Amino acid sequence: MSCMQTEQREGLAPSPVSYPWDLDWEPGDAPVEHFWTTDLKASSKALWPLLADTNAVNARLGLPEMKFEERGGQLHGSSGKFLTRQEWVEVPWEWEVEKSLTAERRYGKGIARAVRVRYVLSDRNGGTRLTIYFGWVPRRWWSGALLRWVNQWLQKRYTRVLAELDELATNTKETAQCYHLINDATVDEARLGKGLSEVVDAGFSTFDVGRLANYIRGASDQVLFRVRPKVLAFEWGLELNEVLGLLLQSTKAGLLSISWDVMCPHCQGVRREARSLGELRELGRCDICDIDFSATTQESIEVTFKVLPEIREIREVFYCSAEPARKPHIVLQHTVAPHSTHTTHLTLTEGRYRLRSALGDGPSLVLEVVQAGGVVDVSWTPREQCVESPMIIDSHVSLIVTNPDESQLNIVLEKLAHDSSVLRPSDLFNNQQFRDLFSKESIASGLQLEVGAQTLLFTDIVGSTALYSILGDTKAFNVVHAHFVALQEIIKSRNGAVVKTIGDAMMAAFSHPEEALLAGIEIQQMFRLGEQDIALRVSIHRGLCLAVRLDSNIDYFGSVVNYTAKMQSVAGAGDVVFSKEFYALPNISDRARDCGLKMQERRLRSSFESDKEVVLVAKLSES
Prior knowledge:
By secondary structure, the chain is α+β, with helices and mostly antiparallel strands. Helix 13 (about 465-470) crosses helix 14 (about 475-495). The radius of gyration is 29 Å and the shape is elongated.
């Protein structure tokens, strides 16, 4: 490791060392500055998530706990007490993923008036050369000496912490777990034991329940403050439904609670935590991003779990605001000075991006990255109007942003991609265990939640009128009831959920289309013609839905619901009808052929799409 440092600079006097970037302190500032470089064996790609999580880095460094509060569209921070008390305002961070980050604070109380921290990463022989810079503006004449000592102390701490992070970056298994362990948790073992016993009694294995118990006892407050089921499933190496079932049953047993978190579409910060589904409202507000937004879109709500305070008191602990780690969708955030231009050279992965101002809901530029053949120079000014179609750009591109205004401009380049780590409301709505355990959960009257594309399966009894006439009301009712029970077992085994029953018909929903296909086949195999008292028709379709309240239940609404029901008009006993939209989904046609299905086209009269719509029909009773 090589180290370079300077003494305090007086005014604008030249520095005795050459910094690896342009310094832009305010005129009159006389900072105490220090920087050093170190070579690490891990790549910038592997190190970035660890370095960007400055909350975890600062905890490892042994820095004091911090508190943050949003006031007037700014993030205010504080730490310490009495003589060590510090209060500050966070300046918007700047970063470029895997290359650099800069944080700055302006202090209202403390030994400094300002501090600036910068990391710069560059490739070196397959590893990373990391440069770390600290610059302080002293508040008093005597605080310069103290801040010089702080810089030296920080470098010694960083030497140890960077060695730990370098090791973690080369071991992906440990990286996910590296910030979970604590030693000072206080747990009510009696309450915890009682709840765990109820979960075991509900049919869950003692191993999985014990794993959850250790998680509740040993995970950090940072992790347990928002338990994310998909992240937990990945870390534990389990299927999502296994983890989700365990968490739902633990919630029913009084160990956890469900939180419906309303997320800002720009910064993805939690703006509101609803304790029940009925508390969700139509609009949300983010003062930091200065936007009002719809709180009913598919991407605006994340479902998480929390440990109940009766089991263990959980605090949201901060050692830093850690903007880059909290906004992983943002690949570039930068402040452009008034009447100036910022140019940067980016290497982007394929996908869709959006370039916009960090504040407000003004004009933006949508970019589509391709591996070759796209535009290599992109120029943008915030005064430009939005273009409906995305600009096709190369993965290696120069971005030139001009700020023509009198005030500084904070810009953001974000990737517009589905976040596979987020549990959405539809993941619960399509889970039978959630509907069984929390049947009283319902959406507020009149509210419509966007749940995206859902796969719907309808069943109906063929000849139900004749069935009642032949068997009589009592026996026919028992047969119909038994058939609903059998259907629910099949649907639940295929990770779907029964949305509702209407007379002799049933509507179910699935998050994964292939599961719906297999459920439809299994249903018709169970109710094969001549082997049961009843015969069924099944229809399957996929499309955009809204979740609404109907008779205090969670129901799906929209043209896709009506169309799936309409498809049954061309189905006979033992038939499964597929819409072409569903059949064209990846793996569906191949899986249908593997199951021995032979398709026939039939024309469906429908007022939703056109006068005649083609659907595909398979008759399992003859296959």
